[in-house]
Amino acid sequence: MNTRRMAAILTALSLFLFASLAAPDVRAATYSFTTFDAPGATGTYAYSINASGQVTGYYSDGSRNSHGFVYGNGTLTTLDAPGATSTYARSINASGQVAGSYWDGSHSHGFVYGNGTFTPLDAPGATETYAYSINASGQATGSYWDGSRVHGFVYSGGTFTPLDVPGATATYPASINASGQVAGDYYDRSGNQHGFVYSDGTFTTLNVPVGSGNRATSINDSGQVTVLAYMPTGSGRSSAYSFVYSNGTFTTLTVPDTPHATGATSINASGQVTGICGYYRGFIATPVCATPTVTIHTLATAPRGGFRITGSITQDGAPLCALVLANGQFMFTCGDPLPKGDFDLTAPPDDQGQITLFGFSAGLAPFQQTIGPSALPASVDGKGCVTPTVTPTLTAAPDGGFRITGSITLGGDPLCALVLANGQFMFTCGDPLPKGEFDLTVPLDDEGKITLFGFSAGLLPFQQTLSPASSATP
């Protein structure tokens, strides 16, 4: 395939899937839900879920005291800080370290718990300190009260660094991911509450297009954010609604039978969400991801040995705005020039006389099907909603670039996928490297970073931003 043609396609794909951040959309998704309660508790509040599916939070007992917990594989373990009357576990990282706060009868203190040891965290000059999140590197974030206002902080290597949204009267960081991105909420001078994401020195406000009182409660390593918003229900009351923000789209998340009281508090690398439902119960939501349905209407010979393919791309019968790609030819199905969801492409067969058809639509897993020219194939529908595992290794390359080698797998099995990094790409389908492996040499972008994507049919796209200059092997 012509390299310039493929580069144009990949540029269009990246823009289509990821540049929609400026115009967020709201859509519904499908999740499977599990609810749980701490034994004997009057209320169970789940606040964090790690990559292994372990959940941490706290529960209230009959004496109105709170106890931290770690929940995994059906077992709940209580976690109480020494000397505390109440313990509030708020975050658990991949290593099982827990961050939170505890009340000693007079003041609140942050803590990090690991290997059986509680380490208090008290910001300098603070009368109250609350730790809300801990990432894989042991960096923690939270807030503190200095007697006049609430400040955010990032704690790393024994040092507290203040983190305040410019112009805010109070800043509450809630989550920190492996890249050091922070999500949280703040109050402006008018008393309005807004969500935010902090990345590379820049604060970006994040508000759901509906509702008010926005809180960004968690950010995972792919940059997906859980957002909590409040909507008035009359009589001066409001209800809590939850969303997952990813690639410019807000996806609603509602635990069945609790439509007005779903509070999403954390999202892990697989897109699993935990939180509080019905005000007093913990929940775990596992996404069930849909692949768009592609229906081929006609497949006919065309001049010069090509084939004309017409069809439609839909979800649950509704036409989709999507990017459809067939052997290097592509078009958008957004209503111009054809009706929304319809496509009409003329594509050459590959060396094996086949055509590989892709369908990409934001918020859905990619569709892929290889077809022969002599039959009309059936549509392929969705799989479970999971993200492939990508393990990149960086080394410095000539001319200021970097060589990225690695593999893309699912459950340890190598995948045939499209791997894309800063405009360079390759397929990991077994030629020329073993299946699942990739080797790319790429330039840095204007910010000195590399954005790595992995696309495999029926799976959620993988995305990771790398800052290689300080970590690559020379």
Main sheet record? 5 strands, mixed
Distance between the termini: 33 Å
Radius of gyration: 24 Å
* Percent helix range: under 10%
Task: Catalogue the unreliable spans.
Answer: 18-25, 373-384, 470-474
- Please report which band the strand proportion falls in: under 5%, 5-15%, 15-25%, 25-35%, 35-45% or over 45%: over 45%
Give the overall silhouette: globular
Alpha-beta classification: mainly beta
Count of DSSP E strands? 41
In DSSP terms (H or I, runs of 4 or more residues), the helix count works out at 1
Sheet with the most strands: spatial strand order:
1-22-21-20-19
Mean pLDDT equals 86
Report on the structure:
- This protein has 474 residues and is mainly β.
- It has one helix and 41 strands.
- A five-stranded mixed beta sheet has the order 1-22-21-20-19, with no helix packed on it.
- A hairpin with a 4-residue loop joins strand 8 (98-103) and strand 9.
- The longest helix is centred in the N-terminal third of the chain and has 16 residues, at 3-18.
- The radius of gyration is 24 Å and the shape is globular.
- It starts with a helix and ends in an 8-residue tail after the last strand.
